[in-house]
């Protein structure tokens, strides 16, 4: 994607050949800054405090985090320690575990002297694969938008509602839920995005709106609870969200509030699609509600908010009654029965065990 005419990815290797640069997403939307990761601890911190976020990007960052750990010590013990440190940073996004297991499986059989160079090559490969996967998601999702566009009168946009940030900033490039939107926009299709603000961290208002603006896509930020209202009035043609973990039977776990959008979509006959790269599918579980761990984040994210005042200063303020308790589950699970389809790199699938296994049979093999 481009920022002020310059092409960027969210993570890349620096010219020194070993340190890793990331876009610091805690600075949005008020500043565009990068940060350098030089140690395992830097990588773990970046994931934990959400300098990087979004399931695919978390996985890519974890892969590079292992590389940084092995620079100091390439022993089995160090590899095991680094795996545990990174795995503990975020419990819900399955791409984190997927990337770490892929790296460990490749590296463990190798002599210590060979591990570092192979690790960097594999981390780079994970990044390149993510870009191509998301590009394919954009192509397959484009067909859904094209069908709706064909029914519109001249000048009427296709209205897409999304939740949280499943865009370029959540992946290495392109995004998942936004990939079809960017592809359609670049093809000249008139498309407009309703952007849920996504409390409590405002990833929609801070991140999705920022990247849509810089790509030139028409969009409108709305409060989280406005989606159902818009659907009732025929102002939403389809919903596309991302997911941090999808079960074998097609349940999807995404940012808190996604389930409510799916219920509203079902009640108003609005198609509800989920865009996901295959590494986001957890082939080891089926029941998302019972089996997916839901991250509980700091209550302070609910009780306080950071923004820019009219004087231009960035400040954090309390937004609830002092002394009130707060709960902050970061994700919820949308059952497969509410999902119109899964937009993957291998096509738009039914949200079912049969469809997922048919599209990705190799993931169930002993060698997977």
Could you characterize the architecture of this molecule?
- By secondary structure, this protein is of the alpha/beta class.
- The chain folds into two domains: 2-128, Four Helix Bundle (Hemerythrin (Met), subunit A) (Up-down Bundle); 140-364, 3-Layer(aba) Sandwich (Rossmann fold), CATH 3.40.50.
- The chain is built from twelve helices and 18 strands.
- It has a seven-stranded mixed beta sheet, sandwiched between helices.
- Helix 3 packs antiparallel against helix 4.
- The longest helix has 38 residues, at 112-149.
- The protein is globular and about 65 Å long.
- The model has no long low-confidence stretch (mean pLDDT 95).
Tell me the structural class: alpha/beta
CATH class of the largest domain: Alpha Beta
Instruction: Based on the coordinates given, report the CATH architecture of the largest domain.
Output: 3-Layer(aba) Sandwich
Can you say what the CATH homologous superfamily of the largest domain is? Answer: Translation initiation factor eif-2b, domain 2
- Can you tell me the CATH topology of the largest domain? Rossmann fold
Major sheet: order of its strands? 8-7-6-9-12-17-18
| Low-confidence segments | none
Q: Which shape, going by the Cα principal axes?
A: globular
Number of helices: 12
The proportion of residues in beta strands is 15-25%
The main pleated sheet reads as: 7 strands, mixed
The count of β-strands is 18
Organism: Stappia sediminis
EC number: 5.3.1.23
Pathway: Amino-acid biosynthesis; L-methionine biosynthesis via salvage pathway; L-methionine from S-methyl-5-thio-alpha-D-ribose 1-phosphate: step 1/6
Site (Transition state stabilizer): 164
């Amino acid at each position: 994607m481009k920022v002020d005419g310059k092409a960027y990815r969210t993570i890349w290797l620096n010219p020194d050949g070993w340190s890793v640069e990331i876009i610091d997403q805690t600075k949005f939307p008020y500043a565009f800054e990068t940060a350098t990761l030089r140690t395992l601890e830097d990588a773990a911190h970046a994931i934990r405090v959400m300098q990087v976020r979004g399931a695919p990007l978390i996985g890519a960052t974890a892969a590079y985090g292992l590389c940084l750990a092995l620079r100091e010590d390439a022993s089995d013990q160090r590899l095991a320690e680094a795996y545990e440190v990174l795995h503990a940073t975020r419990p819900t996004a399955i791409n984190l575990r997927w990337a770490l297991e892929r790296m460990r499986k490749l590296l463990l059989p190798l002599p210590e002297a060979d591990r570092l160079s192979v690790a960097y090559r594999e981390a780079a490969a994970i990044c390149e694969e993510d870009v191509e996967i998301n590009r394919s998601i954009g192509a397959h999702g484009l067909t859904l938008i094209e069908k709706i566009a064909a029914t519109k009168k001249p000048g009427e946009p296709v209205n897409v509602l999304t939740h949280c940030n499943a865009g370029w900033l959540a992946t290495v490039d392109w995004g998942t839920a936004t990939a079809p939107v960017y592809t359609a926009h670049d093809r000249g299709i008139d498309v407009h995005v309703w952007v849920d603000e996504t409390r409590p961290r405002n990833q929609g208002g801070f991140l999705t709106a920022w990247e849509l603006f810089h790509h030139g896509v028409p969009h409108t930020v709305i409060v989280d609870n406005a989606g159902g209202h818009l659907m009732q009035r025929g102002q939403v043609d389809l919903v596309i969200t991302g997911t941090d973990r999808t079960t074998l039977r097609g349940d999807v776990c995404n940012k808190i509030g996604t389930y409510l959008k799916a219920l509203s979509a079902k009640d108003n006959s609005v198609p509800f699609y989920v865009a996901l790269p295959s590494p986001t599918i957890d082939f080891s579980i089926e029941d998302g509600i019972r089996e997916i761990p839901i991250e509980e984040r700091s209550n302070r994210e609910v009780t306080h908010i950071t923004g820019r005042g009219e004087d231009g200063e960035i400040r954090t303020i309390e937004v609830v009654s002092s002394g009130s308790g707060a709960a902050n589950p970061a994700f919820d699970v949308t059952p497969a029965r509410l999902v119109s389809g899964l937009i993957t790199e291998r096509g738009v699938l039914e949200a079912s065990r049969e469809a997922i296994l048919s599209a990705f049979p190799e993931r169930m093999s002993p060698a997977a």
